[in-house]
Amino acid sequence: MLNNRSYNNLVNLVIIISLILIPMDPVLFLPYEFLGLKISISRMLLLFSFFLLLFNLFWKPLKFKKTFNLLFLWTCFNFFTYYWSFGDFKNIIRNMFLLIFINMVVILSYSLEKQRLGKYVVYIIIFLSIIFAFIEQLTGYRLPAARQHVFFYELTAFYINPAHLGSTLSLLSPWILNNSYFKFKGGGGLQVFIITIVLFVILRTGTKGSLLSFFVAFIFNILVSIFSMQKKVLINYIVKLIVTLIIIGFFSVTFIYTFLPEILREKILYINPKLLFSSESYISRENIWTTIWTYVRDRIFIGYGIGSFNTLFDLSSHNLLLELWFEGGFINLSLFLILLFYVLIRLMNNFAKNKVFVASLLATIPIFFTLGSFLDFWAFWIVLGICIANI
Fold first, then answer.
1. Calpha distance 123→110 (Å, rounded)
2. Which residues, 6 or more positions from 171, have their beta carbon under 8 angstroms from its beta carbon?
3. Which of 165, 230, 269, 355 could form a disulfide with 159 if both were Cys (CB 3.0 to 4.6 A apart)?
């Protein structure tokens, strides 16, 4: 028989594995559906770990923050929009289940972080993402679910597209950028090496939004370090920072011109201010946003209901805020932003302790306008659960 401590360790292990696997969701799909929803190994394990946690709460209660009320309110409102939804049955059910899984992911990551275990999930996701990316880089092998012809030159690892790979790494990068969290043997040298590798993989995804997100976290970390140091320590830090930037810059440029396809070098590195808002990518997104906005104006407060976007549009929004506004109106958008800013403000109250989490949330902003869909961007919901546990 397992004692309470052994059972708790077993539950934590299952939760860690389920959170590590959920970003791999696209490559773990099984050839089965339930009410139009695809079934995957990762989703079944997520359900199993959630019920294990519920059972564990009987003798080891977990105190939930009031912040969960905002998350549940946002979720319930999305469910309530079913009553006026223009969505078809399949898309409505899909989004409802995604919202349920989102709440599970947030609660599970929250429960781990309350025991200070959340960072291990982050590190393992980063490690696996890099390993799978380099396997693809070196061998050209790509998992079947990620074999989209439109991303021939980009790395995807085990994600459905390169944007999810790049966005996941950039969102989780504050954990390796911050010295207080990155305490492995090898010290600064290992940290610089891994930062360089992460930056290279982000470049190989060919997504500017992910690259911008990484630099938001990177610059934020530098500024925080500078303004929090004493003058004597500051000089030493600046010298180390310059050396670090030179090393990262040298290896990054070497990687870029050795391994980065020319088409991606032009896509990412050639930035002409005159062409910045006239590129094919920007024009296509501008047209999508303009079309969506013409719909939003007609139902500005309550939107078109859950699942309506994928029903009425056969395309990706590449704009989380506009998609939330479309499906649930201004009310839905406001509830989500209130949740996000409430968590951010509460974290700022103890800034010295929570700077990693603040950096991660700030790095999310460019990603809002990068990903085709945000509900299944699991790294964000893992980070949100970790953030809530630290307020």
1. 16
2. 213, 217, 360, 363, 364, 367, 379, 380, 383
3. 165
The confidence band for 3, taking pLDDT boundaries of 50, 70 and 90, is low
240 pLDDT higher than 60: yes
Strand partners, 29: 40
pLDDT in tens, 72-114: 999 999 999 999 999 898 899 999 999 999 999 999 999 999 9
Token readout for 231 is: 């003058």
Alpha helices in the chain (DSSP H): 4-21, 41-56, 67-80, 89-113, 118-139, 162-172, 174-177, 187-205, 208-227, 231-259, 262-269, 280-296, 308-312, 320-348, 351-367, 378-389
Q: Give every CB contact of residue 204 below 8 A, 6+ residues apart in sequence.
A: 133, 137, 154, 155, 162, 259, 260, 264
Q: CA-CA distance, 212 to 268, in Å (whole number)?
A: 11
Please return the burial class of 360, using the count of CB atoms within 10 Å of its CB with bins 0-12, 13-18 and 19+: buried
Q: Can you tell me whether residue 40 is helix, strand or coil?
A: strand
Q: How far is CA 10 from the centre of its chain?
A: 26
Torsion of CA 242, 244, 250, 253, to 10 degrees: -100
